[in-house]
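Progress report, Aim 2. The chain analyzed during this reporting quarter is listed below.
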Amino acid sequence: MINTKENIRDRILQLKEKKNAAILAHNYQIPEVQDIADIVGDSLELARTAKSIECDVIVFCGVDFMAETACILNPEKTVLLPAEEACCPMAQMITADEVRMLRRRFPDAAVVSYVNTTAEVKAESDICCTSSNAVKVVESLDEEQVIFLPDKNLANYVARFSSKEILPWQGFCFVHDRITHDDAIKARRDYPDAKLLVHPECRPEVIDLADHVFSTSGMIKHVCSAPDKEFIIGTEIGILHQMEKKCPDKICHPLSPQAICTNMKRTNLAKVCESLELLRPRITVPEDVANRARKAIERMLAV
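Predicted structure tokens for the chain:
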């Protein structure tokens, strides 16, 4: 009977080899899931990996839109989402019908969709982006007017570095949006020697107080390479595990200990094991939607 983490981990490794599977995990996953993964990264890293990795089965330890993206890029592979109920609330804040409405209202604008969107929304978009490449993606466009969705905070961040007219949708990440100016002030007071790193999904007034703004993987790279020894990390606390592993000589404090995405925490080793055993829950995307969404994603990957 599989009843310990060690036994479950061993069984996962057996199943992974037997079924030629690869496990992809986001930086916000719980530590034991990150530790069993072949690749741990942010949305852009995982999208690139999903497109290039050689395997028959992709086990995606993240939330629904991430598994959908892997499915869109790998129609010939089986894509599993161990925590079937793991959704992204921000992705639900914009619909395909609303994108079509925006296109009618702003016919000359390009539509840039954050990867934190449904496949149906991606299918209505010109190009996708992630937090690490959003500015670069927007600047690559010929259009001077850009509909940016769904995250208003990321849209506002992009607008700081672009001469284009950015038209933001009013969605947000509840984890980052509830980090406040007061939280940042308190953290700076508590750790006066630490550098403050925040995610571009944070509010503008929080970004204004930061020393640096990075995607999750950008934060990890900076912490490991910077000469500074102490950091305040303004994103979901799951990232601290990778920092502890890769930069054990650095001290990292969470900007907000309450910065927890409950949906990202729904995946555990037992669910990964069961998913590999049964090859369920399987994520599928209708072919017509996938074909249109793939163009927006691949256009992003080519930037």
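The longest strand covers residues 21-26. The CA atoms of residues 33 and 150 lie 28 Å apart. These observations will guide the mutagenesis work planned for the next reporting period.
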